[in-house]
Amino acid sequence: MTVHTLLRSGSGRQSALLDIMTHRPSLLIAGLAIALALAATPYVRVASAQDVPRFFDPNERLARPSLAGLPRLRFLTSLDFPPFNFADAQGRVAGFNVDLARALCVELDIVDKCEIQAMPWDELDATLEGKRGEAIIAGHRVTAELRATREVSAPYFRFPARFAARRDAGAADADDMTPLTAGKKVAVVAQSAHAAMLAAWFPKATAVPVDTIEDAHAALLSGDADFIFADGVGLAFWLGSTASQDCCDFVSGPFLSEHFLGRGMVIVMRQDSASLAEAIDSALKSLEEDGTYREIFTRYFPLNPFSDGPVGSAPAEGKAERPDETG
């Protein structure tokens, strides 16, 4: 598979949507509208079970240390990263990360000890360090710097890179993107992780560098580009919005790359929290196995960024990883 992320320098945040939405007011408003609509809907089922990414080996046994001596588990988050963490129409903290934190509390059987507190992103680390919270679940990406100073969970979300094309191009059922993109114009945000990935993995494609993801959308709509190569999560929301003019679909499947795009989002704890991290990893695995993770995923991502081919379609058996991982 192939993960997309545009990494906001210095923030440590997995910013596939942040770079697309936080710095683009119109898309932030659209993203909030979508997130609020999803939060108001108990279930929006489009993705199939096979579409939802897995993070754990089903045959691996993870120890779960007792948390009986833990007086409190306060999850810290922010409100600026829809659909992961945001304020709903009633001003309550909501989102994929928030529902996942609540599910972890249930799985760990410590609901009475659990709290969720929202604050500005820039205050999260100091609050954790000051022991006014035990874990941050707000969109951190794994980095060497983070691992050197913090305990982190296993990854629980990844951002797939995707191709999208106009439906009239007849490319929706394509499997191998290498010959399909040869000599074709592919809109990609300049100097992004996707641009580097496109150059390395699809060298025969003709890159059309653009300044913003909105420019990439416009290039595809106008015919100035044959494809977009970008974050699958952001593309899924765009494809499902009126802004796309119902023009386009995903092509082929998702691409994930630790080399270009990192390992995904993690929960962050203090370095003295090894037992808590082990317990959270064990609980994350249980949520994956019993279907709870899938339920939360489909609640917030009805247009599944991991589906193969057109939005909402089921994946081809065994498809996902890039054939060669040479970088």
Automatic annotation (TrEMBL):
UniProt protein name: Transporter substrate-binding domain-containing protein
Solute-binding protein family 3/N-terminal domain ranges (all copies): 72-304
The keyword Signal appears for this protein: yes
Compositional bias (Basic and acidic residues): 318-327
Region (Disordered): 308-327
Lineage: Bacteria, Pseudomonadati, Pseudomonadota, Alphaproteobacteria, Hyphomicrobiales
Species the sequence originates in: Oricola cellulosilytica
Entry superkingdom: Bacteria
Record flagged with keyword Signal: yes
Keywords: Signal
